[in-house]
Amino acid sequence: MVQAAPQQVAEDKFVFDLPDYENINHVVVFMLGTLPFPEGMGGSVYFCYPDQSGMAVWQLLGFVTNEKPSAIFKISGLKSGKGSQHPFGAMNLPQTPTVAQIGISVELLESLAQQTPVANAAVSSVDSFTEFTQKMLDNFYNFASSFAVTQAQMTPNPSEAFIPASVVLKWYENFQRRLTQNPLFWKT
């Protein structure tokens, strides 16, 4: 659900609650267009979740600016990682075991450029179907190749058909090429 009313926890810091965060895979952070950041400023985006002991773990996801007013972050893999340095440390924010938070810290653009977000928060530019198909192709090719034998190693068996490895490789390369050109080619 879209949340447009953050809690202001300091002059330059805001948090949004994420109830039932364990069932959320991605978070979209965007500016509404009604109030831009001050000139030369942007917002660092942090994800906070309670660890097993209930302590807040903050991780830097990335940032938004007037020039880049939206971002998508993958949080599903972050729920067990280590925290990072963050500007919310001295604040006593209420934390419950089933609620995570997205924190926005308004900062200078120069400092945003020097920050390093947690590695696996970035969303893949490849959609999940294409990624699945690529992994399936790789798996099939590796599986089929593991049975490759030379012609000298073959035992004749009239009830079994053999496919040359070069044919499988050619199919694999053609399928990858077509998938790269048009991920939905298989629908036609």
Write the layout of secondary structure elements.
Blueprint: E1 7-10, E2 13-19, E3 26-30, E4 41-50, E5 56-64, E6 70-74, E7 99-108, H1 109-114, H2 128-145, H3 165-181
Helix pairs in contact: 2-3
Walkthrough of the structure:
There is one protein chain. The protein is an alpha+beta fold and 188 residues long. The chain has 3 helices and 7 strands. A 5-stranded antiparallel β-sheet has the order 1-2-7-4-5. Strands 3-6 form a two-stranded antiparallel ribbon. Strand 1 and strand 2 form a beta hairpin. Forms an asymmetric homodimer; required for binding and nuclear import of HSP70 proteins. Interacts with ATP-bound HSP70 proteins.
Helix percentage range:
10-25%
What order do the SSEs take from the amino end to the carboxyl end, as H and E? EEEEEEEHHH
As a percent range, the share of strand residues is 25-35%
Return the average pLDDT rounded to an integer: 81
**Spans of at least 5 consecutive residues with low confidence:** none
Which structural class do the helices and strands define?
A: alpha+beta
Number of helical regions: 3
Mind telling me the C-alpha Rg? 24 Å
Largest sheet: 5 strands, antiparallel
Strands in their spatial order, largest beta sheet: 1-2-7-4-5
* Secondary structure tally: strands: 7
Query: What best-fitting shape do the alpha-carbon axes yield?
Result: elongated
Distance between the termini: 35 Å
